[in-house]
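TL;DR need structure tokens for one chain.
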Amino acid sequence: MPNTKCCNDTNHSSQTRDEYVTGKMQQHTSFYKKIYQLLYTLNDFLLGLWFLIGSIFFYFEPLKTWGVTLFVIASLQFVLKPTIRLIHEIDAKRYYGQKYDEEIRNT
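>> reply
TL;DR here they are.
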């Protein structure tokens, strides 16, 4: 039912499923943006810290292995950040799509 109009919700009457989901995602994004911005800032801070400490460890032969380990950990954090964002986006779109479908069934 991708193009079915939603008429049950007075705030979202005459909207297609895509319009409904997009509108809800914009509201959702503004609400959760502050929380995720804090998490992303903390992640970025830790990334910088791991790379700084790893770089310092590289100056000392006995600590080079630990330095490389910190570089690998920081690199994994680079991969996790967009992965978390993508998973969150997909789950939220699925949730609002299902909510729209339920409203259509209840009309």
